[in-house]
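Before the break, one more example. Copy the sequence into your notebook; we will annotate it together after we see the structure.
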Amino acid sequence: MNVYHLSRDLMLVAKVSSAARSAGTKFQSASSPARLIKSIQQYLSNATVDEAGVRVLVDLQIPGLEIVEFKKQLDEISGSVEVIVYAQHVMTDLIDAANASKIGRVMTRGQFDRKVSELVR
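Here is what the structure looks like once it is written out:
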């Protein structure tokens, strides 16, 4: 399994990276949706079927992130990409948009923070 994290929060990226390293999980972070999509495409084009599991962790508060378009791009890459998105609990418009897009599992930032170790395994 490869874990990709879309976030500009350097403290959280470091926490997720550390948890992934401890779990022995391959990890890569990106600060823009375009970079993340490109990284996943490159990985999947070279991965064997056994290696191809991908989990994407997405901070919904990335400036300019259009969740519906992002989901469409992920769907075009592969149907096997698991997506987990999160935002601060007060960002109800982002959480509602993510739920409406049916992008994957939607969490608050607090829930995400508490489950980081589980999410990278």
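Helices lie at 10-23, 33-46, 67-77, 92-101, 109-119. The chain has a mean pLDDT of 92. Try to locate both features in your own notes.
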